[in-house]
Design brief:
Blueprint: H1 2-17, E1 21-23, E2 32-43, E3 46-56, E4 62-69, E5 72-77, E6 83-87, E7 94-104, E8 109-111, E9 115-119, H2 122-157, E10 170-172, E11 179-181, E12 193-196, E13 203-206, H3 211-223, H4 234-244
Helix pairs in contact: 1-2
Length: 248
């Protein structure tokens, strides 16, 4: 149930981000009226902003079209394209019914399909948008924190294993220039995965390193003799602690 609600919210946001054109199915005895969003809010039967009512695929011999909102004649158009542009702020808030009538050359009058939408004020549209986007932004932030935090916490507990890089591949730290493996759970940020070096702790966005780069870094790893930079294991750490007792 929660998944369905989540997918519905994502769908609404996609609708908000891209222009939408709504047309009725073609009918030879009716005009095909569509509502095009030029700029503004449009979702779940509610609209706010700049829109266009347009006759799609006008029949042969169509001489003029009259556009109506709530039964009030708003515009008469006698040339193609048969459309009418309007802004919802020119009307009171609430549900509105839009339709059109056309006259053919032989005098036949055709009526279009009816389109019902709730007109919102700019404040109402912003409130609707905020309610829809806020949970998505929160969910994205949580997933990002989990994607960053979990690998970093894991990297603190996990020892570096020389020469073993796993399915996500190995990388070379730009600070200490030593090799380490990327976690498969690290977030992928297009340019590379967000990773934390287990040697020096630097956080970087790194792509998979080439085998040549890893071999060079492995050579540096085996030659590195700076105390505290790399701990090969518990025994090495204990040895360093014992040696430190004799230092003045």
């Amino acid at each position: 149930m929660k998944m369905k609600k989540w997918l519905k919210t994502v769908l609404v946001v996609v609708v908000l981000l891209f222009p939408v054109t709504a047309f009725a199915s073609q009918d030879a005895t009716r005009l095909q009226l569509g509502l095009i969003r030029n700029f503004g809010y449009g979702g779940l039967g509610k609209i706010q902003g700049n829109f266009t009512l347009k006759i799609s695929n006008p029949p042969v011999g169509l001489k003029e079209v009259r556009f109506y909102i709530d039964g009030n004649l708003l515009e008469t158009v006698d040339t193609e394209p048969f459309n009418y542009k309007f802004h919802t702020s020119a009307f009171d808030d609430g549900e509105r019914e839009m339709y059109a009538e056309g006259t053919l050359a032989d005098g036949t009058i055709l009526e279009s399909n009816h389109i019902s939408k709730v007109f919102l004020s700019s404040d109402q549209a912003w409130g609707e948008t905020r309610q829809l986007i806020t949970p998505i932004l929160i969910g994205t932030a949580v997933l990002t924190l989990l994607g960053v935090g979990v690998p970093m916490l894991a990297s603190k507990k996990k020892s570096f294993v020389f020469g073993k890089y796993g399915p996500a591949g190995g990388v070379v730290c730009p600070r200490c220039e030593l090799p380490f493996s990327r976690s498969v759970f690290s977030p992928n940020l297009l340019a590379g995965k967000l990773v934390r070096c287990p040697h020096c702790g630097k956080v970087s966005i790194l792509p998979r390193a080439s085998s040549t780069s890893l071999q060079e870094a492995e050579s540096r790893y085996t030659r590195k003799d700076e105390p505290g930079m790399i701990h090969h294991g518990k025994e090495d750490l204990q040895k360093q602690l014992e040696d430190s007792r004799f230092e003045e």
